[in-house]
Amino acid sequence: MTKSSIVNYTVIGATVLIAVSRVIPHWPNFTPVMAVALLGGAIFGAKRYGFIIPLAAMVLSDLLLGLVMGWEYAFHDTQIVVYGLMAVIYGMGVWMRNDSPVKLVFGGGTAAAVLFFLVTNAAVWMFGSMYPHNLSGLMMSYSAGLAFYRDGGNFLFNAIASTWLFSGLVLVARAMAIRVSESTAQ
Predict the structure, then answer these.
(1) N or C: which end of the chain has fewer CB within 10 A?
(2) Three-class DSSP category at 39
(3) Which residues of 133-163 are buried (b: 16+ CB within 10 A; e: fewer)?
(4) Domain ranges across the chain
(5) Tens-place pLDDT, residues 38-85
(6) Which ranges in the chain belong to alpha helices (H)?
């Protein structure tokens, strides 16, 4: 098998696994998507795989969610914002690629999760009709977002902890793969 084939199968496999993680029952916002976007930027830099994997996983899982839960659930007014945030989080990873793994996982992971919360709830306020379009409405959107996450599990725990956990797992798996490839090359 060629190196190119291995890379292609790895990208496809990772995309499917990440997509499935969003479809199977899980705590709200406890998926590897943010971690993979962040580390995709840090590990792959400007190469396309780092961004393709989380974005393709989001699109694939949104299609699956649409089939199961209804299209209005999968495709909504803030969809482009969510996808755009994956690009921003990927960019954070590119920017942090020379930082220590600890700073990348904990600093980048925390920043990514908090940014996701702030921007997506602002988008719901801005593009929706649930809240008045003033500062009070924006605060109501953030409060409702916190209550939503609290009722299904704490946002800060789920989004931040899952990003920390999955980032750490990806870094450990990568280190192990490098070690195995180096030992087999000798």
Answers:
(1) C
(2) helix
(3) eeeeebebbbeebeeebeeebbbbebbbbbb
(4) 3-185
(5) 988 888 766 777 788 888 888 888 898 888 888 887 788 888 999 999
(6) 3-23, 33-44, 49-69, 71-74, 79-95, 101-102, 109-127, 135-152, 155, 161-185
